């Protein structure tokens, strides 16, 4: 089985306070704010298992492709900086391996319930 690469994104993420904070801080559109956030979280997912990375605010802004994102996310409480360390708030809850396993299990169970409620009815074989 191949290792599927994905991050968990709630359908209401574009409307969350942190995205609004990015919009206000960076004077950008909701789409640009969401894309900057998404780019960051994809990067975070490739380099951290526990939500702690070695990065300064300037590094975060550069990866996001939008100056001011680090400040906005820090004000929103989504990241914090401790010296050269950047800590992503609640990383394990939302993006860790156990969170991904829970999300995949929930998706499998939903599919199973749907298949049970909608069985495939095969037509009878043709008469000869």
Quick take:
The chain is mainly alpha-helical.
Rg, rounded, reads 20 Å
Task: Give the termini distance in whole angstroms.
Answer: 43 Å
What is the helical fraction, as a range of percent?
A: 40-55%
The overall strand count is 3
- What portion of the residues fall into strands of 2 or more residues? 5-15%
Decide which structural class fits the backbone.
mainly alpha
Strand order across the biggest sheet?
1-3-2
Low-confidence stretches: none
Sheet bearing the most strands, described? 3 strands, antiparallel
* SSE pattern, N- to C-terminal: HHEHHEEHH
> Mean pLDDT across all residues, rounded?
86
Q: What is the helix tally?
A: 6
Instruction: Indicate the overall shape.
Output: elongated
Describe it for me?
The protein has 128 residues and is mainly α. It is 55% helix and 9% strand. It contains 6 helices and 3 strands, in the order ααβααββαα. It has helices at residues 17-26, 30-47, 57-64, 69-76, 91-95, 97-117; strands at 52-54, 79-82, 85-88. A 3-stranded antiparallel beta sheet has the order 1-3-2. β2 and β3 form a beta hairpin.
Keywords:
mainly alpha; 3 strands; 128 residues
How would you summarize the topology of this molecule?
Blueprint: H1 17-26, H2 30-47, E1 52-54, H3 57-64, H4 69-76, E2 79-82, E3 85-88, H5 91-95, H6 97-117
Helix pairs in contact: 1-2, 1-4
């Amino acid at each position: 089985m191949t290792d599927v690469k994905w991050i968990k994104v709630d359908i209401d993420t574009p409307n969350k306070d942190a995205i609004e904070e990015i919009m206000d801080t960076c004077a950008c559109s909701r789409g640009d704010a969401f894309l900057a956030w998404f780019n960051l979280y994809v990067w975070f997912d490739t380099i951290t298992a526990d939500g702690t990375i070695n990065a300064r605010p300037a590094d975060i802004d550069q990866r996001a492709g939008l100056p001011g994102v680090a400040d906005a996310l820090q004000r929103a409480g989504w990241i914090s900086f401790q010296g050269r360390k950047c800590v992503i708030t609640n990383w394990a809850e939302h993006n860790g391996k156990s969170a991904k396993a829970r999300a995949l299990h929930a998706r499998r169970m939903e599919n199973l319930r749907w298949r049970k409620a909608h069985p495939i009815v095969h037509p009878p074989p043709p008469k000869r």
